[in-house]
């Protein structure tokens, strides 16, 4: 058995080595032995892949440092960090107010901000503040149909690109992001809503996504719904949607039909 | 030859397959055949590594989008984008002036900025502007020993985390970064200077790095110099440095000695 020509696996220079040494392949990553049919990469490619991974990780570290540098303290954070007697000025030059947030009686709490930041993050604020409109003169931007908490989180996101989300907050912020054309925030909320999508909330999410042009959420919801058409008409929200906005229901059926046609074509080819 | 038990490489279920199929390993990455001694990973680890790489790339895309969102237009960019008759207000509330930039006669050109940005990026500006010092009251920050171009690039970096560097600009910005404690910029300049390090500029770079506490550059320069001790005393800048700052020369010899000792210990073990 010492010199049968097995295949390339047997080393040409291995005559003096033991058979097991010459013929065993051990994965450099998991350290397990493996057979030819389970071969992944050669050593050279393995090492290259390792270098690529290291490079990508370095790039990530660099980008994280850049984010940390560019990220603002929010003027809200700052007010909380300072002592009550000396919160420290942060030079805000504008306030945002949730002027009909539904809490009766109490005057709305203004959210301080900087025109320069608002203008930089949102083309709508830019047009509003650079064109000497009422908001620019008064230094007060009134925002309707929003809670104080959502407005605060919205302003905070403009400074930090961060937000703590639950489903309600993601919907509230998505609406604000759409209204003020803050694309990055809209994408952030959309990803969150897609991650929370399930059969129970699929129809409501679909209708919400439709109303606010959230394409990522819309596609995900539509895909989930059309995968479960047998259960659709039994859903409580289905009848409500037929009543309230039948065009949306039509679009579901259209998507289902188109999916069926595509599947048929796919099978034929 | 059909059923010799070669090793794990021969599939137990491969009796009907041709020998070459069963026994050849082909790298999934470069598609070349390879021998056992050149084995890298098994298939499972190869696929996992591929997924990891995809994940890292997605993370990079997300971080890049975040940087693009957090990045400011610089107030300088903006002035250039607007038309000359209507540059568009960007609400600057402070100007920086290079007040002795060496150009005689002409009044210095102020560089507009926002207090909120300066305070956010530099603890020195923060102390200066939040504590009702002269600069805060007057809205003018005078900066000495700097050219208008470097000051402009400095302010631009505070908004964008970007700068176009040559060696002179990297040195100028490093000095400003050190003075105003802008760590991210200092690191950016240090990396650039290390990439430009060579034998010709090694001594000057070493002295510069020493003067401005640029540790990354200092270590790289010292390593290059101590690798070429035989040529050191022949350098023109060497004699100049001995004259001007002999302690720095002593540190080079100390580093060389310490390197020799370490190498000896390493050899012994």
Structure notes:
The structure is a homodimer of 269-residue chains. The first copy, chain A, has 269 residues and is mainly alpha-helical. In chain A, 58% of the residues lie in helices and 6% in strands. The first copy, chain A, is flat, with a radius of gyration of 29 Å. At the A-B interface, helix 1, strand 1, helix 2 and helix 4 of A face helix 1, strand 1, helix 2 and helix 4 of B. Chains A, B: Pfam families: BTB (PF00651).
Distance, first to last CA of chain A: 51 Å
Question: How many distinct domains of chain A?
Answer: 3
Radius of gyration of chain A: 29 Å
The CATH superfamily of the largest domain in chain A is identified as Potassium Channel Kv1.1, Chain A
The chain-level structural class of chain A is mainly alpha
- Give the amount of beta strand of chain A, in percent: 5-15%
DSSP, total strands of chain A? 4
Please give the share of residues in helix of chain A: 55-70%
CATH topology-level name of the largest domain in chain A: Potassium Channel Kv1.1, Chain A
H and E order of chain A: HEHHEEHHHEHHHHHHHH
Low-confidence stretches of chain A: 1-22, 79-88
Give the count of helical stretches of chain A.
Answer: 14
- For the record, the CATH architecture of the largest domain in chain A stands as 2-Layer Sandwich
Mean of the pLDDT scores of chain A?
84
Oligomeric assembly: homodimer
Biggest sheet record of chain A: 3 strands, mixed
Strand order in the largest sheet of chain A: 3-2-4
Biggest protein-protein interface?
A: A-B, 73 and 73 residues
Organism (chains A, B): Hibiscus trionum (Flower of an hour)
Pfam family, one (chains A, B): BTB
Region (Disordered) (chains A, B): 1-21
Protein name (chains A, B): BTB domain-containing protein
């Amino acid at each position: 058995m010492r010199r049968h020509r097995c295949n390339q696996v047997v080393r040409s220079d291995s005559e003096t080595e033991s058979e097991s040494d010459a013929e065993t392949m051990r994965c450099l990553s998991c350290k397990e032995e493996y057979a030819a049919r389970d071969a992944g990469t050669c050593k050279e490619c393995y090492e290259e892949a390792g270098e690529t991974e290291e490079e990508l990780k370095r790039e990530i570290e660099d980008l994280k440092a850049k984010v940390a540098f560019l990220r603002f303290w929010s003027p809200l954070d700052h007010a909380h960090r300072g002592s009550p007697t000396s919160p420290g000025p942060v030079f805000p030059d504008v306030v945002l107010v949730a002027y009909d947030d539904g809490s009766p009686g109490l005057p709305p709490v203004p959210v301080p901000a900087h025109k320069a930041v608002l203008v930089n993050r949102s083309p709508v604020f830019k047009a509003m503040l650079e064109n000497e409109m009422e908001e620019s003169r008064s230094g007060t931007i009134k925002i309707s149909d929003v809670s104080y908490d959502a407005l605060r989180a919205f302003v905070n996101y403009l400074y930090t690109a961060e937000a703590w989300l639950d489903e309600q907050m993601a919907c509230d912020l998505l609406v604000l992001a759409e209204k003020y054309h803050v694309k990055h925030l809209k994408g952030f909320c959309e990803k969150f809503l897609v991650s929370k999508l399930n059969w129970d909330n699929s129809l409501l999410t679909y209708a919400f996504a439709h109303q606010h042009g959230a394409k990522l959420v819309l596609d995900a919801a539509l895909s989930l719904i059309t995968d479960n058409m047998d259960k659709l008409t039994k859903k409580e929200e289905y009848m409500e949607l037929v009543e309230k906005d039948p065009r949306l229901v039509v679009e579901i059926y259209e998507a289902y039909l188109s999916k069926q046609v595509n599947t048929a074509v796919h099978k034929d080819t």
